[in-house]
Write a structure and sequence with these properties.
alpha/beta, Alpha-Beta Plaits, 2 domains, four-stranded antiparallel beta sheet, 14 strands, about 25% strand, disordered N terminus, disordered C terminus, binds adenosine-5'-triphosphate, binds magnesium ion
Length: about 350
């Protein structure tokens, strides 16, 4: 496996470090800066022969949606449940709200909300009863159940039994449960797995609302599109190790292929000539002119030059890079199967 290169541009650099470092060693992570609410260093969890989590280091900033992206069995749930204090690490350190977890357990319990993977609730409670039940488990500052119901658009269903809700509505109730203590950090472990595209988008809306409310969202997912759509920053985990991290743009720039403009029809020789006059490399492939683009500005330039020079064409298409391609570049494997496409 190739070593990870850290590409975060927004992290503060420790003295003597450069912006590109080898990762997965304890000293390799760029300083998280003062606004990190979670800092994980060289975290490990071993089950017999299985290194479920094999020395991961990352930080999560206050108010961001942080996506922890990886395929089945990568170590996502194991990692997140160590941060949630559900599992005990084999080694490594975890700081939440700036303090080591060991010294901070009750504060963390009060200030985090959790939607576990494959969440289920009581079949015979209504939506409202469910939220009230979970809220009673907490003291202190609470988020009014009425407000959670309206935030999640569950008003019409508040008297419906949990067992009679659709999968998407059940997940929304699960998100609602994670909010009853008005947490600062919300952990959502695969919140949209098994949902149809519409229900998935409803959950995405809720995640955006949470970010608008200033919450930090730790989103665990194996859907690359979910990370692309929602995340401020992304960590990709594979076989217990973090293999890349950064904003979507940083990851695409570093590991994705460049965008390619294709032009079909028309006088292809003249189109190639025009692209070359703009210092772009162009070639004819499958009956289309294919032009790799250094950046998007070239699209409008090329199209306006085609127009002024009276060069005709039938259609244009831009193929953009995505996280699937990033994952393939890094691991040689596909992240998700066809059924994962939304
Ligand atoms: N309690 C356990 N005992 C033994 N092995 C475990 C245990 N929990 C997890 N593992 C193993 O650790 C590895 C990581 O599992 P984990 O559940 O963290 O992956 P994940 O990334 O959350 O996957 P998924 O997308 O399927 O939820 C897997 O090989 C899994 O079988
Ligand atoms: Mg999991």
């Amino acid at each position: 496996m190739s070593p990870e290169l850290v590409v975060e541009s927004d992290a503060e650099l420790s003295p003597g470090r450069t912006a590109v470092t080898e990762a997965n060693s304890p000293n390799a992570v760029l300083s998280p800066g003062h606004n990190a609410v979670i800092e994980v260093n060289d975290l490990k969890k071993v089950y017999g022969d299985v290194k479920a989590v094999d020395g991961v280091s990352f930080h999560v900033k206050k108010g961001e949606v942080f996506a922890f992206l990886g395929p089945n069995g990568a170590g996502k749930t194991t990692t997140v449940e160590m941060v949630e204090m559900i599992r005990t690490p084999t080694a490594g350190s975890i700081l939440v709200f700036g303090k080591p977890l060991d010294s901070n357990k009750s504060e963390v319990r009060e200030r985090i909300g959790v939607l576990p993977q494959e969440f289920k609730s009581f079949d015979r409670l209504t939506v409202r009863e469910t939220l009230v039940y979970y809220q009673k488990l907490y003291d202190g500052a609470l988020w009014a159940v009425d407000e959670i119901i309206s935030l999640l658009h569950l008003k019409e269903k508040e008297k419906t039994l949990y067992t009679n809700l659709s999968g998407g509505l059940k997940q929304r109730v699960g998100v609602g449960i994670s909010l009853v203590n008005d947490p600062d950090i919300v952990f959502l472990d695969e919140p949209t797995t098994g949902l149809d595209p519409r229900a998935r988008r409803d959950v995405w809306k809720v995640i955006r609302l949470l970010r608008d409310r200033g919450k930090t969202v730790f989103l665990t997912t194996h859907y690359m599109e979910e990370a692309e759509q929602l995340a401020d920053r992304i960590c990709i985990i594979h076989q217990g190790k973090i293999i890349a991290r950064g904003t979507l743009e940083e990851l695409l720039a570093k590991y994705g292929k460049r965008r390619v403009l294709t032009i079909a029809g028309g006088d292809q020789g003249r189109i190639v000539h025009l692209a070359e006059s703009m210092r772009l490399k162009a070639k004819i492939e499958d009956g289309k002119v294919s032009i790799p683009l250094p950046n998007n500005d070239f699209v409008t330039d090329i199209l306006s030059k085609l127009k002024t020079e009276g060069i005709m064409y039938r259609e244009v298409d831009i193929r953009r890079s995505n996280l699937e391609e990033v994952f393939l570049t890094l691991t040689g494997e596909k992240l998700g199967g066809e059924e994962d496409e939304v």
